[in-house]
């Protein structure tokens, strides 16, 4: 079983819909992250959380919100989806130190029509 | 200047070739460095950490030059399966920034 699990793996939806992407991990890591990746571009950080009470905006948080329900779960919401949020979304985890590598889930491919 | 810069490539090399990628970073206070590999439409996977003394893992060698603020990855005896995008990753040197910074990646295509 994957250590970092994202659901759904693929989603097609319409403009204006509310969407939630979920991430769960069995690695026991404190830190969790959400990124988006657009074709030909690098990873861009949306939100990150160092524990259930510590949530921080990344470089592109507008239009997104997150919830850290437990140490092992970190969900990303698009309150009112728009087509330019079509992208590949990755969740990642790391140990409690900014010098540690991150471990990624398989990704969620999101298309907004 | 971007925090982490990489040549996007693509680097097209024949099987068996040796290929090297460089990456430059802007924050001299950064402490940790990594190379990740990403296959098309898949998640990034940690390839190796980069240590000050340089380190090797099989056909892969990573080196760090703190004075010039660059990191390199050398791949010897390239295989078709090495075709992927290689991401240079740097830890935050700024205490106000608390997440790793990923470069945009260098694409490698190994040809038969």
Radius of gyration of chain A: 13 Å
Mean pLDDT value of chain B: 92
Order of helices and strands of chain A: EEEEEEEEEEE
- Gap from first CA to last CA of chain A: 32 Å
Structural class of chain B: mainly beta
Order of helices and strands of chain B: EEEEEEEEEEE
Q: What is the count of helical runs of chain A?
A: 0
- From the structure provided, what is the oligomeric state, counting identical versus distinct chains? heterodimer
The outline of chain A comes out as globular
User: What kind of sheet is the major sheet of chain B?
Assistant: 6 strands, mixed
- Interface with most residues: A-B, 23 and 21 residues
**In whole angstroms, how far apart are the ends of chain B?**
37 Å
pLDDT below 50 for ≥5 consecutive residues: which ranges of chain B?
none
SSE order and pairing:
The complex is a heterodimer of chains A (113) and B (112).
Chain A: E1 4-7, E2 10-13, E3 19-25, E4 31-37, E5 43-51, E6 54-57, E7 65-70, E8 73-78, E9 87-94, E10 103-104, E11 108-112
Parallel strand pairs in A: 2-11
Antiparallel strand pairs in A: 1-3, 3-8, 4-5, 4-9, 5-6, 7-8, 9-10, 9-11
Chain B: E1 4-6, E2 11-14, E3 19-25, E4 33-38, E5 45-50, E6 55-57, E7 60-65, E8 70-75, E9 84-90, E10 101-102, E11 106-111
Parallel strand pairs in B: 2-11
Antiparallel strand pairs in B: 1-3, 3-8, 4-5, 4-9, 6-7, 7-8, 9-10, 9-11
Can you offer a commentary on this structure?
- The complex is a heterodimer of chains A (113) and B (112).
- Chain A has 113 residues and is an all-beta fold.
- Chain A is 0% helix and 55% strand.
- Chain A is built from no helices and 11 strands.
- Chain A has strands spanning 4-7, 10-13, 19-25, 31-37, 43-51, 54-57, 65-70, 73-78, 87-94, 103-104, 108-112.
- In chain A, the strands form 2 sheets. In chain A, strands 2, 4, 5, 6, 9, 10 and 11 form a 7-stranded mixed beta sheet that branches. In chain A, strands 1-3-8-7 form a 4-stranded antiparallel beta sheet, with no helix packed on it.
- The model of chain A has no long low-confidence stretch (mean pLDDT 94).
- The mean pLDDT of chain B is 92.
- With 112 residues, chain B is an all-beta fold.
- Chain B is 0% helix and 50% strand.
- Chain B is globular and about 45 Å long.
- In chain B, a hairpin with a 2-residue loop joins β6 and β7 (60-65).
- Classes of the chains: A mainly beta (113), B mainly beta (112).
- The A-B interface holds A 33, 41-43, 45, 48, 50, 56, 58, 88, 90, 94, 98-107, 109 and B 31-32, 34, 41-46, 49, 87, 89, 91-92, 98-100, 102-105.
